[in-house]
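User: Just a sanity check before I run the rest of the batch. Below are the structure tokens for the first item. I only need the designed sequence back.
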């Protein structure tokens, strides 16, 4: 077989977007500025998943593909939500490690290298499968900050996932671990607990956060709180139903040993 000309990426940056037309160009430019020329990360790819946007997000992405050769664009014919868009992107990704970012520019792409370095720098015995961003100074409305604080407190008490901020869009994790998780709509808010369920470890690292400068927020109090309560019980059930056997392969040579 002929050798492929380009080596496969080390990191796939997955960005889900729904109606973020004005944020496409500035964020892609920021991602490339943060990652191009970084020897620990290159080669990398950017995968945008346009989740059935009804604005000009797709056109903005097509225009950027002319400029950024390592930008891949996947399109959902209809909106299926943020988790499903992330799932589409991770499935298509070619790298063993994924970085996710919100598409609205509230996460800072320049934080990716530090998270990635932590992830790949861990010893194998650490079993580190995820490095989650932790928005220590969240730049959102008062009501969003309060509801998120309550949700995080209830969730961490119930799921014991040792994660102060699961809602942060910036995370670095192993692709294979993610694909082993049970998929469900809104799963992106429970990734640390699902990593633990899969037998891995997740740590949280402080990251920056900025106010949204363009476009409008897609989530409010109601569409987050009520589904959140139902999901919490669902994830709790999934955790209780998980078994992690210690598997030993028996070969003819050691078959009679304990
Ligand atoms: N693919 C997809 N992405 C979404 C959807 N809703 C929100 N997002 C993305 O998720 C990220 C966070 O959403 P945002 O509205 O900023 O939520 P907030 O920061 O909590 O106010 C942004 O990148 C949005 O474009 C959706 O239905 N589908
Ligand atoms: Mg946002």
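Assistant: Here's the designed sequence for the first item:
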């Amino acid at each position: 077989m002929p050798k492929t000309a380009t080596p496969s990426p080390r990191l796939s940056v997955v960005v889900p977007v729904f109606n973020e037309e004005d944020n496409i160009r500035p964020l892609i430019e920021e991602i490339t500025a943060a990652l191009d020329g970084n020897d620990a990360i290159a080669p990398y790819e950017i995968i945008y998943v346009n989740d059935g946007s009804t604005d000009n997000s797709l056109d903005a992405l097509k225009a950027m593909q002319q400029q950024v050769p390592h930008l891949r664009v996947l399109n959902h014919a209809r909106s299926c939500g943020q988790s499903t868009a992330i799932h589409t992107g991770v499935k298509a990704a070619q790298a063993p490690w994924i970085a996710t970012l919100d598409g609205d520019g509230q996460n800072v792409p320049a934080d990716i290298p530090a998270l990635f370095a932590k992830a790949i720098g861990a010893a194998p015995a650490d079993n580190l499968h995820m490095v989650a961003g932790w928005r220590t100074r969240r730049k959102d409305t008062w009501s969003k900050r309060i509801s998120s604080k309550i949700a995080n407190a209830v969730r961490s008490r119930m799921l014991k996932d040792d994660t102060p901020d699961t809602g942060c869009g910036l995370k670095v994790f192993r692709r294979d671990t993610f694909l082993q998780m049970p998929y469900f709509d809104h799963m992106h808010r429970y990734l640390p607990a699902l990593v633990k369920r899969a037998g891995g470890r997740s740590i949280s690292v402080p990251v920056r956060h900025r106010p949204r400068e363009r476009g409008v927020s897609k989530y409010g109090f109601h569409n987050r709180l009520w589904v959140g309560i139902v999901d919490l019980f669902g994830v709790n059930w999934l955790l209780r139903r998980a078994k992690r056997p210690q598997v030993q392969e028996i070969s003819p040579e050691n078959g009679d040993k304990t």
